[in-house]
Specification:
The protein is built from 24 helices and four strands. The protein is mainly alpha-helical and 560 residues long.
Length: 560
């Protein structure tokens, strides 16, 4: 049921209801259009709770108004309001998690500069972990069910952003533990890694909470610039420098295409915030051809950031060329931010064009699952194999998004989070197996791992089973939820295609298990791994199995 304009105004003035689509199904865009058609003013760009009050008119020039005032006058009803130029208290409340990350990243550099240069960098490392824990606490403290849009409609805090940020920072903790282990073995353990990684996470969090194209792009560039530097972090590595250059050139091209698409959408709608773009699309007073062209370029930019076919060419080379601790970060956490990017742009901003972008995602998902799983079979380099595996998993994330249902979006979110945890564990095993002067990146180097280190072998087995979707691991449920969402919209053929390629992909995951448990070790060198990394890997592996017993409980905590 869509409320009429008269009924909407009655609800606002008499009952003080929360004007939101999901709760009262009030068509806020129609309300705005109706009020403007009456020659009145509607100056607040987002729906927030309206109090029951008859207010006096606010004097002109007063800027710090944080609620809408409902005024009755001789001409009818005029809804007047302005977002505040937020004070320091409100800024701390809404931006607490980002401020914590920014302060932590800055302090890491200062602490490293003024503390003794011990090889362990314990002060910087401890501060990094404390920063992530404080960020999680900040999200939990400021979070809530209500959607809040601040800073002139450029930043949004809602249930989805809270969930993604908490998941991002929780998974980041073992990523830093594994990264420290690997970089110490390579002699490259420096505080700059911690600082760049924290700024990359900050960029991801900005992307997740962006409420407009401009904020989204700023967060995206903060993330990618840090990743470019991290890929070339090992200064003496020619392969790392080559991979960073490829990533930079292709990333700049993708950013240009994304900006071009944004410019076409802005030219057609005159809006940069996602709600404004969506409202303009609903009005239909624009050239749809220009919008579709802009949408194509935006989807290309999103596909590149995910690493979807045919915009995947950077992933295998960058995964292989970067040092394993960097690949660990690159292959896990950004997938959560990329999901937030897709949801904000496609669902919230370009939702009225869903019939166009959903078909684009169908093509991208099928190509990604096909090429990713088939080409991964031919790989002898495990980092390249996991890169193509990532491409296939991106296809599954797209399946949930293209379903266009709330359950599909939740399934895609669940899949993105679970995949990030699986990828962190998989690359973490490789980091643990590295030795000084000997990097583990070939499949044959995993032979006989069960004889050398049963704990790591068991952890890798659980992670590979989860990636393959073997029940009862959590990876199985992630795939099942996505497939259920696709079947629910009568695209059973697409679900069958996904299952077929998943069966093909199971081969290269089980091949890793075969090498570890049924082949003889190629050397008897002991596996040296620190206690913290070994414990974190154990928790990571056990979580793949334990979370598989409570999948619906986890889904209940995910909100879109």
């Amino acid at each position: 049921m869509i409320y009429s304009l008269r009924e909407a105004l009655r609800l606002i003035t008499e009952e003080g209801l929360d004007v939101r689509f999901e709760r009262h199904r009030l068509n806020h865009r129609a309300l705005v259009a109706g009020i403007e058609a009456m020659g009145l003013s509607m100056l607040v760009p987002e729906p927030i709770r309206l109090p029951m009050l008859n207010a006096v008119r606010i004097p002109e020039g007063v800027e710090d108004i944080t609620v809408r005032k409902v005024l009755l006058n001789q001409y009818g009803i005029e809804i007047i309001g302005r977002l505040a130029n937020l004070g320091h208290a409100l800024a701390r409340q809404q931006f607490g998690d980002e401020i914590v990350l920014l302060a932590g990243a800055s302090l890491v550099l200062l602490v490293d500069l003024f503390t003794p240069r011990d090889k362990d960098r314990m002060w910087s490392y401890a501060l990094t972990i404390a920063t992530l824990l404080a960020g999680i606490a900040a999200v939990g403290y400021t979070g809530g069910p209500d959607r809040q849009i601040v800073f002139e409609a450029t930043y949004v805090r809602d249930a989805m952003s809270d969930t993604l940020k908490i998941a991002l920072m929780i998974i980041a903790i073992p990523v830093f533990i594994y990264g420290r282990e690997g970089l110490r073995k390579q002699g490259e353990w420096r505080a700059e890694y911690l600082m760049l990684a924290l700024f990359a996470i900050l960029g991801m969090m900005i992307m997740i909470s962006a409420n407009g194209f401009l904020t989204m792009y700023l967060g995206l560039e903060l993330l990618t610039l840090c990743l470019y530097a991290l890929v070339a972090f090992c200064r003496d590595s020619a392969r790392g420098a080559e991979a960073a250059m490829k990533y930079f050139v292709l990333g700049a091209l993708a950013s240009g295409l994304l900006l071009y698409g944004i410019s076409m959408i802005y030219g057609a709608t005159g809006k940069l915030d996602f709600q404004g773009v969506s409202a303009a699309l609903v009005s239909g007073n624009m050239d749809e051809t220009v919008l579709v062209f802009g949408l194509v370029f935006v989807v290309i930019g999103i596909a590149f950031k995910f690493g979807a076919v045919p915009f995947h060419m950077w992933a295998p080379d960058v995964y292989d060329g970067a040092s394993t601790p960097v690949t660990l970060l690159l292959g896990s956490l950004p997938k959560i931010a990329a999901f937030g990017l897709a949801m904000r742009i496609l669902v919230e901003g370009m939702g009225p064009l869903a019939e166009h972008w959903s078909m684009m995602l169908v093509i991208l998902s099928v190509l990604s699952m096909a090429l990713g799983n088939i080409v991964a079979i031919a790989q002898d380099n495990i980092k390249r194999m996991l890169a193509y595996s990532t491409i296939s998993h991106v296809g599954f994330i797209f399946l949930g998004i293209l379903s266009g249902t709330e359950e599909g979006y939740k399934a895609a979110m669940f899949y993105a989070i679970v995949y990030s945890a699986m990828a962190a564990g998989g690359f973490g095993i490789l980091v643990a197996l590295d030795r000084k002067g000997a990097v583990v990146d070939q499949l044959y180097q995993l032979k006989g791992l069960n004889d050398r280190h049963p704990w790591l072998a068991a952890t890798m087995l659980l992670i590979m089973f989860s990636m393959a979707g073997v029940p009862p691991t959590v990876g199985f449920w992630a795939k099942l939820f996505v497939l259920d969402a696709v079947v629910s919209i009568d695209m059973t053929w697409l679900a069958i295609v996904a299952v077929a390629f998943s069966i093909i992909g199971a081969f290269y995951y089980l091949r890793v298990v075969k090498f570890m448990y049924f082949d003889k070790p190629i050397d008897d060198a002991p596996v040296e791994v620190g206690g913290a990394a070994q414990f974190a890997l154990g928790v990571n592996g056990i979580a793949m199995l334990a979370l598989g017993f409570f999948p619906t409980l986890i889904m209940a905590y995910l909100h879109i």
